[in-house]
Design a protein that fits this description.
There is one protein chain. This protein has 206 residues and is of the alpha+beta class. Helix content is 20%, strand content 50%. It has helices at residues 2-21, 185-205; strands at 32-39, 42-52, 55-61, 67-75, 79-83, 88-93, 102-105, 111-120, 123-125, 128-130, 133-142, 145-155, 159-165, 172-180. The strands form two sheets. The protein has a twelve-stranded antiparallel β-sheet with strand order 6-5-4-3-2-1-14-13-12-11-8-7, with no helix packed on it. It has a two-stranded antiparallel ribbon with strand order 9-10. Helix 1 (2-21) packs antiparallel against helix 2. It is globular, with a radius of gyration of 22 Å. 17% of the residues are buried.
Length: 206
């Protein structure tokens, strides 16, 4: 009997591991990424998560009442597009070659380009040091006036590590300080099963 229980619990664990190991998208859905945000003398905490492959959620704790924004996204196994009101714009694509720009439209409709400037061997933020980080530069203009002048540092499999926005006065920055992944249901079931097995063993020994 106990051998069958152990087999069942191991099966649940393997299923959970298989589900957790599936890389269906370039950035994981459900993870919560926490940032230290700063602009001039102001600083606050932001949280970012892909609540689904079609929804991006951003929470800014600039005051006691958080500001919550959601945007439609298209999240695939290689790319991320975000729709800020002017149609989906390609923010990241890990298949793009370094130095080859693509057309980009910012949230106010100004047009320009996005370019993978480099793939960094090492990039450090408070949340850790990471390799194979994509530095993507976005530049849009209205006439001769620059609207969007930003560096994003993307890590496939995790998300945004840092954003440097030089298009505002003063400049603003978001830096990843922590991240957390939800516990797959299979792990919860497995943990409950182990607890039950331990109780059975105690009863049997008693």
């Amino acid at each position: 009997m106990y051998g069958k229980l152990r087999t069942a619990f191991l099966s649940i664990l393997l299923l959970a591991l298989a589900g957790a190991a599936q890389a269906d998208t370039v950035f994981p859905v459900g993870w919560t990424l926490t940032y230290a945000a700063e602009q001039g003398v102001n600083d606050w905490v932001s949280e970012l998560t892909f609540t689904s492959p079609t929804t991006l959620k951003l929470i800014n704790w600039e005051s006691a009442t958080p500001k919550v924004d959601e945007a439609p996204v298209i999240l695939t196994d290689t790319a991320l597009s975000i729709d800020e009101g002017h149609g989906p714009q390609l923010y990241f694509d890990k298949t793009k070659n370094v130095g080859v720009p693509w057309d980009f439209k910012s949230d106010d409709g100004s047009t320009g380009t996005a370019t993978v400037k480099a793939i960094l061997n090492s990039f450090e933020v408070p949340a850790g040091t990471f390799d194979n980080v994509y530095q993507v530069y976005y530049l849009t203009k209205v006439g001769e006036n620059i609207h969007m002048n930003e560096n994003f540092y993307w890590l496939p499999g995790l998300g945004l590590l840092r954003n440097e926005d030089y298009g505002k006065d003063p400049d603003s920055f978001h830096t990843l300080t922590a991240y957390a992944t939800p516990i797959p249901p299979g792990f919860l079931l497995f943990g409950s099963g182990l607890l039950g097995l331990a109780v059975l063993r105690r009863v049997r020994k008693g």
